[in-house]
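Design request, tokens follow.
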């Protein structure tokens, strides 16, 4: 029988914020226990920020340079395969509790009045959304109202005031309970494929109930200070509302304490989920994958939220429990792994071919305890800010194609190895950080003998990951080579 598949995203969960990763403040007993019953990906990276771009890479197994979801609001091209469509082909009925932050391809609608053209918070094609927790979280707000808290539809206020209510009324508790209710209706002998998409520890930095008091601001660690010499983009973000970190130490400490509290709560719910699977006798037949769409600067380098080139925004949680490979349980994988690897890993676990579009590699060898013959030597991620220049004005960059190419210059790519990080900006500027000398990303270098190999690595990354769906076959002798999926007549007897 095929396994159950449980794909869990914890929105904005930094990779260093686990006690099993050595964090001196955060306590994550349930995630640590899950890692002991699976493998922990110590150097796991998202491929883009913010939410929509990062999730597009996770759901399609492709880098941003290929899927081209560059910001919250960019449509996802309908031609792409994704984890839900793949699960359908494998015989599952994929469901989701939460959100996927993927906007529709405008070519798939026939009406200019289609409300989906006004939001990026649509569900990924292929998923049956059992619980809709896209903004403005209507089921949760109704749940709060029924319990005496009428927020009049103000979802931001509902999140901001989570510390004022009991944690049993939190958005994370609500999602977990709704999943449990659905699970009780499922035939334990029939495999299911479910995505739990938790909002927390995403801002506002306000943990629910007792979790808001779990960490004293006086006891938390302080962020990495910004360097004196900064790239103009870094400087701009440090002076921009919404991305600039709090200016006072007390506010920084409070932000971090609340973030850690939110992590404590989602850790608690991960423990509840694992216990429920044990109660139902499904623990030994459920592939569990926990990751995030991106990280959080959390005050590091004078920034908050997810943006730019520092790895705090891209180094994320990664835990995989494969019940079929107990021989590796408890191991920590230190090689660089990426969110684009998740779709290929699920494909092999459920017995379907890895789609040719996938840029990622299956983690299967690691899960089995064997070292892949070839593996990446660094992680690569991208960030794009062209949305600043997109509008409907006569002189907007979006409306002056093909002569105005400003949109195509507002991006960066990072190649991050163990010892260095190379940042290439779309305007031609670049940075190189010496991580061996200074892992805090505050020391740069410009030695050509060190910079050139990093730049060449990035060029090779681009050349090796360009679109390949049809490039592995030739139209000769009836078609030879690597055929794409979707040629219906080839599967007929």
């Amino acid at each position: 029988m095929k396994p159950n598949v449980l794909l869990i995203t914890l929105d904005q969960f930094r990779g260093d914020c686990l006690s099993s990763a050595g964090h001196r403040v955060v306590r994550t007993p349930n995630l640590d226990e899950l890692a002991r019953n699976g493998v922990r990906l110590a150097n796991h990276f998202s491929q883009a920020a913010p939410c929509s771009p990062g999730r597009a890479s996770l759901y399609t197994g492709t880098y941003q340079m290929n899927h081209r979801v560059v910001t919250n609001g960019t449509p996802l091209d309908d031609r792409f395969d994704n984890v839900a469509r793949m699960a359908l082909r494998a015989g599952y009925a994929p469901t989701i509790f939460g959100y996927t932050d993927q906007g529709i391809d405008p070519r798939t609608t026939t009406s200019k009045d289609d409300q989906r053209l006004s939001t990026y918070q649509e569900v990924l094609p292929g998923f049956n959304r059992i619980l809709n927790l896209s903004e403005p979280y209507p089921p949760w707000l109704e749940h709060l109202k029924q319990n005496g808290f009428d927020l009049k539809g103000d979802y931001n206020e509902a999140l901001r005031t989570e510390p004022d209510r009991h944690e049993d009324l939190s958005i994370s508790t609500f999602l977990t309970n709704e999943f449990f209710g659905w699970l009780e209706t499922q035939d334990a002998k029939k495999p299911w494929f479910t995505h739990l998409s938790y909002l927390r520890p995403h801002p506002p930095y306000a943990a629910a109930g007792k979790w808001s008091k779990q960490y004293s601001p006086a006891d938390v660690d302080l962020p990495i200070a910004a360097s004196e010499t900064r790239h103009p983009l870094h400087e701009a973000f440090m002076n921009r509302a919404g991305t600039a970190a709090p200016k006072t130490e007390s506010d920084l400490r409070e932000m971090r304490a609340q973030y850690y509290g939110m992590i404590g709560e989602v850790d608690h719910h991960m423990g509840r989920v694992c216990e429920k699977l044990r109660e139902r006798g499904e623990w030994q037949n459920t592939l569990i994958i926990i990751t995030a769409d991106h990280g959080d600067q959390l005050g590091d380098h004078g920034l908050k939220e997810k943006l730019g080139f520092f790895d705090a925004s891209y180094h994320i949680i990664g835990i995989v429990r494969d019940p079929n490979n107990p021989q590796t349980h408890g191991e920590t994988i230190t090689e660089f792994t990426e969110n684009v690897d998740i779709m290929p890993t699920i494909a092999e676990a459920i017995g379907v071919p890895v789609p040719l579009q996938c840029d990622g590699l299956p983690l299967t060898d690691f899960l089995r305890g064997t070292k892949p013959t070839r593996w990446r030597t660094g992680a690569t991620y991208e960030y794009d800010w062209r949305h600043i220049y997109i509008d409907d004005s006569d002189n907007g960059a979006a409306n002056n194609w093909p002569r105005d190419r400003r949109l195509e210059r507002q991006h960066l790519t990072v190649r991050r190895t163990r010892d260095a990080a190379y940042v290439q900006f779309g305007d031609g500027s670049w940075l190189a950080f010496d991580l061996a000398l200074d892992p805090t990303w505050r020391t740069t270098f410009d030695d050509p003998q060190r910079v050139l190999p990093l730049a060449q690595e990035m060029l090779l990354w681009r050349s090796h990951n360009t679109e390949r769906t049809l490039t592995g076959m030739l139209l000769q002798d009836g078609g030879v080579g690597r055929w794409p999926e979707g040629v219906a007549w080839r599967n007929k007897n």
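Comment from the thread starter after seeing the answer: thanks! The longest helix spans residues 249-279.
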